[in-house]
Amino acid sequence: MSDFQLTRTLDEHAAESALRADVLRGLTASPKELPPKWFYDARGSELFEEITRLPEYYPTRAEREILLERAQEIASASGARTLVELGSGSSEKTRHLIEAMPALQTYVPVDVSESALTGAAESLMAEHPGLRVHALLADFTRPLRLPEAQGPRLVVFLGGTVGNLRPPERAGFLASVRAMLSPGDALLMGTDLVKDEATLVAAYDDAQGVTAEFNKNVLAVIDRELGADFHTADFAHVAVWNREREWIEMRLRARSAVTVKIRALDLVVPFEEGEEILTEVSAKFRQEGLRKELSAAGLELTQWWTDAEGRFALSLSVADGIAG
């Protein structure tokens, strides 16, 4: 008989407090910036799902290709009895892994959306009678206390989301993952790879303008939640490839001088014509560079799988000194 448990580590006002702090800090900084997590209200999540189906946006298709073709290898290499997914969302891609793990006993999805956690749990338990789901309502960028469950455990972080973290943030995140691992546990992580600039920029600036609407949605979130008076038409979507840092930058550029009031913060934010808000970085990786980052956190890269075109990679890493 399947069973479901939900552990809340975020109080009901956590998201509101975090949004207020991020907007105050980011829009009074120079240059201005906002964290990408605020794209994802209900409308933003719908838009991102639409983005994943666009011809220009290859990462989701490439990662799914690897999961479909390599799920059995991943399951065998990990030997996992417990699957922990960071930023689980709908758990859609993880289903391929779960289907390849007949010995899996417990699934631990971690997300900030309670509705996403409960919805995914219901469908997964219906598909896999006997699977235990212990969901964590939590922010995976903060240290996590995982529930007791039989090892070995496979911690999964898909979608290339690790690229949204700047290098110091990535170092801290990977160290926190290492701290979760016991002997025999492993980390499976999705990373988008460095490739030609035209392909990269097109993935973040599609011809239909869906990504532009997605980028501007962060302004709609601030308007609704903090009583701001942003007008999305006042800002243009910009996506550029930073060659030196090997990451895509998404920005919102003021089309003309404009002043925005944010009532909940008692804040007035002036923009000059052409001034930008950095809303997302999306780092792209090379195998050796990622190996070094993992090693610095005490993780050893032991397996590396890519799609047929070599656009995206899934890597399996274990704690140093643990046989893979």
Architecture blueprint of SSEs:
Layout: E1 3-8, H1 14-27, E2 32-33, H2 42-51, H3 59-78, E3 82-86, H4 94-99, E4 106-111, H5 114-127, E5 132-137, E6 153-157, H6 167-180, E7 186-192, H7 197-203, H8 210-226, E8 235-242, E9 247-254, E10 258-262, E11 267-271, E12 276-283, H9 287-296, E13 299-306, E14 312-319
Parallel strand pairs: 1-5, 2-12, 3-4, 3-6, 4-5, 6-7
Antiparallel strand pairs: 7-14, 8-9, 9-12, 10-11, 13-14
Helix pairs in contact: 2-8
Number of strands: 14
Structural class: alpha/beta
Order of helices and strands: EHEHHEHEHEEHEHHEEEEEHEE
Average residue pLDDT: 93
Q: Strand count, sense and closure of the main sheet?
A: 8 strands, mixed
Helix content: 25-40%
Overall shape: globular
How many helical elements? Answer: 9
Percentage of residues in DSSP E strands: 25-35%
Low-confidence stretches: none
Strand order of the largest sheet: 1-5-4-3-6-7-14-13
Rg result:
20 Å
What is the first-to-last residue Cα distance? 32 Å
How would you sum up this structure in a few lines?
By secondary structure, this protein is an alpha/beta fold. 35% of the residues lie in helices and 27% in strands.
